[in-house]
Amino acid sequence: MTGVPSAGTCLLWSARLVSVGLVISCLEYIAERGVLSNAGLIDWELGRTRTRLGVTGPGARIFNALFSYPNVLALVACRLVLAVIMLVAGPAGWIVTVPAFALAVAFCIRSPYGKDGADHMSNIVLGALAVAALVPQPGVRLAAVAFIALQCALSYTIAGIAKLPERQWRTGDHLCGILGTECYGLRPFAQRLNRKPALARALSVGILFWESTFILGMLAPRPVALAYLGLGIAFHLTIAVFMGLNSFVWPFLSAYPCLFYWLEVRPW
Fold this sequence. Notes:
Elements lengths: L6 H25 L12 H4 L9 H11 L4 H17 L8 H14 L6 H18 L3 H26 L3 H5 L1 H7 L7 H8 L2 H16 L1 H4 L4 H22 L5 H5 L2 H10 L3
Helix pairs in contact: 1-4, 1-6, 1-7, 1-15, 4-5, 5-6, 6-7, 7-11, 7-15, 9-10, 9-11, 13-15
């Protein structure tokens, strides 16, 4: 076990990586703050009508004070400050993961729509970090590392298995379709891929195989497991470049220190 980083060190790097995604997300909200306004895509005036709690009673008054525009920008600013502290501070700054997780829950209450896998992974990592900060015991930190690593491995595996029954995923049609969209694509590349169906099929099948067997890859011999992690890093960086999802890469990569820790401590 000599040279193996501690569970605390892994969580520290997880906190730093997930905080990068939070910083990017907050800066995007500030730059495009109109989406949070009453005329925006995720305005609170409409969103609060989802439940009675957002319309009547003392809870509604509290939520309206926090989530209405422009008050919500103060929450964005607080989240940005906490993320910066997580990024630059050492273990002493772990305690800020508690309010950071609370703000993540608050933003889910304000608008549960449009959340993708990266948002869920970010909340999972923040929640595990918050528990480890509140109960700073070695066993709790080890459990947090295991929880994050398992959640990441399951997220890949379940996503891959869910795609397998769809013929369009196996043929590459869905991959070309996504890359050809205006919001999440790169049309010149999609057009080239459409002209090479064999390449599209190979890429799509490769992604499906990597995702659906990821959890088995973490049980495989070390060189194979490291190859799975390397492909994962390349996968997320490619998505960030081709699909323009600037903050998508960081929540998943924040789980990788925990996956590396698993490879170091497993008995084979």
